């Protein structure tokens, strides 16, 4: 008997016919951070069976703010592939929210505090550019934070986006949902001594910086980035959107805000440091005028790549070993589309964009 299901693919929503009585080989997802969870949803939407290795050590996703920002403020340009990735991510997370019955994405805008008259003028010129109409605007006075709380002598611009994903809620609710569907979560690290043979299940490695211990893919040029954030509490500031000026301030509710983040390429472990704390305090105090207390400091290691593009594809020698990693600081926006493209390539023989295919680093394997 043929059944049908709809899923999001790299080119949109697709309808697939399948044999409901057919037995399917169970895929293995290694890692339960952003990459592993998004890829699991793409497998689920296609009716695929899978199990997950969850080592409970996904520091990067658990610490991340989950911002979806289609703009690079430093150069005031659109993020790489933003026109493609942002609407796809919006559709994907909306579909997941409907499955879970939980709101995962805040639907907040990002308000950029200008640092100079030049930045204000540059913003104004981009607002008149058709390529930026969907992203940049000038907020009306009633939308702005109080000038007694935030200093913005050169004005503020508004980025139109889907807001930010709650990373911890996404991971926890997704895990509960999949467990109810019969998905097995194995609560320890994956054993790389496990034999992976041709014809066996596909292993999707979504380990973040854990890839450093993966003998199959540690040849790839990862450039992990240490980052730290603070959680502050104040009753002297009230703003329900994301504020940005050399850092972000994200509302968490209950008078709490997440502020960050730092970037450090020398620290290799997710440890908190006094230097990062002082850096964040200095940045925050430079444009705000309210008192606050620091509730918590957190650190994580971002799985970034030297060319700032994700890493997707089959291992050159082991066809059932597949990587999905290197999502970096734009991971929430990047992950849905490229997880779909990767799964399409494995299940249907679809193509992977050369910009993200690990074949671009084949020389590192030789």
Main sheet record = 8 strands, mixed
Strand line-up of the largest beta sheet: 9-10-8-15-16-17-14-18
Question: How many DSSP H or I helices?
Answer: 8
What low-confidence regions span 5 or more consecutive residues with pLDDT below 50? 1-23
Structural class, by secondary structure, is alpha/beta
Oligomer: single chain
**Run of helices and strands:** EEEHEHEEEHEHEEEHEEEEEEHEEEHH
Strand content: 15-25%
Which geometry do the CA atoms define? globular
Please compute the radius of gyration using only Cα atoms: 21 Å
Distance between the termini: 47 Å
Summed over residues and divided by their number, the pLDDT gives a mean of 89
Q: Tell me roughly what share of residues is in helical segments.
A: 25-40%
Beta strand count: 20
Protein model, in words:
This protein is of the alpha/beta class and 366 residues long. Helix content is 27%, strand content 24%. The protein has eight helices and 20 strands. An eight-stranded mixed beta sheet has the order 9-10-8-15-16-17-14-18, sandwiched between helices. It has a six-stranded mixed beta sheet with strand order 12-4-3-13-20-19, covered by helices on one side. Strands 1-2 form a two-stranded antiparallel sheet. It is globular, with a radius of gyration of 21 Å.
Q: What would a concise description of this structure say?
A:
With 366 residues, this protein is α/β, with parallel strands linked by helices. The chain contains 8 helices and 20 strands.
Task: Name the features.
366 residues, alpha/beta, eight-stranded mixed sheet, six-stranded mixed sheet
């Amino acid at each position: 008997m043929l059944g049908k299901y709809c899923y999001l693919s790299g080119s949109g929503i697709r309808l697939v016919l399948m044999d409901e009585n057919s037995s399917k080989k169970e895929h293995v997802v290694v890692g339960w951070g952003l990459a592993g969870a998004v890829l699991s949803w793409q497998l689920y939407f296609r009716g695929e069976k899978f199990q997950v290795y969850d080592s409970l050590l996904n520091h990067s996703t658990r610490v991340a703010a989950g911002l979806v920002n289609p703009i690079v403020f430093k150069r005031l340009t659109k993020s790489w592939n933003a026109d493609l990735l942002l609407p796809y991510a919006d559709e994907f997370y909306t579909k997941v929210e409907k499955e879970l019955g939980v709101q995962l994405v805040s639907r907040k805008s990002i308000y950029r505090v200008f640092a100079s008259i030049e930045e204000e003028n540059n913003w104004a010129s981009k607002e008149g550019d058709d390529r930026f109409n969907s992203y940049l605007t000038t907020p009306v006075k009633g939308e702005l934070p109080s000038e007694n709380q935030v200093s913005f002598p050169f004005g503020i611009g508004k980025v139109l986006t889907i807001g930010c994903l709650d990373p911890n809620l996404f991971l926890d609710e997704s895990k509960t949902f999949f467990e109810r569907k019969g998905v097995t979560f194995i609560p320890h690290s994956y054993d790389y001594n496990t034999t992976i043979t041709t014809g066996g299940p596909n292993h999707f490695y979504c380990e973040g910086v854990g890839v450093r211990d993966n003998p199959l893919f540690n040849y790839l040029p990862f450039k992990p980035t240490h980052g730290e954030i603070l959680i502050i509490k104040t009753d002297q500031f009230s703003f329900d959107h994301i504020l940005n000026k050399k850092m972000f301030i994200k509302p968490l509710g209950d008078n709490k805000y997440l502020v960050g983040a730092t970037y450090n390429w020398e620290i290799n472990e997710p440890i908190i440091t006094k230097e990062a704390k002082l850096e964040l305090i200095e940045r925050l105090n430079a444009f705000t005028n309210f008192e606050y207390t620091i509730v918590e400091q957190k650190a994580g290691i971002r799985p970034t790549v030297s060319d700032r593009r994700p890493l997707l594809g089959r291992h050159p020698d082991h066809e059932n070993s597949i990587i999905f990693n290197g999502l970096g600081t734009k991971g929430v926006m990047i992950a849905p589309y490229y997880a779909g493209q990767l799964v399409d390539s494995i299940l249907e023989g679809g193509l992977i964009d050369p910009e993200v295919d690990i074949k671009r680093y084949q020389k590192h394997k030789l």
